[in-house]
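Running this now, will post back.
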Amino acid sequence: MVIQTKDGKFITARQYPKMVKIQPKIEGPKMTLSAPGMMDVEVDFERLYKTKPIKCSVWDQPVEAVDCGEDVARWFSRYILEDDFGLRLVFYAKELSMRNVRPKNKCVDTTLREDTGAFHDATSFMILNESSLIDLNTRLSVPVVGLNFRPNFVVKGAFAYEEDYWRWVKIGEVVFRSVKPCTRCIFTNIDPMTALRSENGNPLNVLKTYRMFPDLGATPVLGTHLGLRVPGNVNIGDEIFVEA
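Update: finished.
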């Protein structure tokens, strides 16, 4: 997670769209970060597990995380702010990560603290139905791709918006509980390839015309947040079973 040096608050591509062009590559205990116009920078995870955590903030909720060091802090500051200072990268080093449920997510009684993760908006996992994305694109003048919605999993073969009714999802040997519909923000309007915001406010504005859910506020829904119940391995192409 990238935070502001001055106050420890997290930032995302909502404020700085060019962040979507940062590419991580993980090999063993190390991560290499690449971005246009920048030399690659490396983060050593093994060292971070031995480092004392600092205090930072996600949606005004406190989180302890480990600072990843000066080199990568300077790298992010230069790429995003075009300055040598101002941002830092932090890492969550504990095995089990959780925060309190955000007040806006308490409207759904299936939202539990153990599903929140450390740095996420709502939960650690989100699934997107490819048929729902295809239907959305029939309503748009410029189509979007799955990366606009940043899912962990994309399911093929279901009816459009069938995911609204799923209670349980099994992918391979892993079992998830459907926690809540995924409400969408301006992040969806950022092209994941170019980092440019759409000029007409889509797909978010179009989603608002037909994907508003009672009790979920003024933001539309696409996708479903999941909570892990039976851990295991997931592979591309695994069969998916659902229970409504």
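The chain has a mean pLDDT of 94. More later if anyone needs it.
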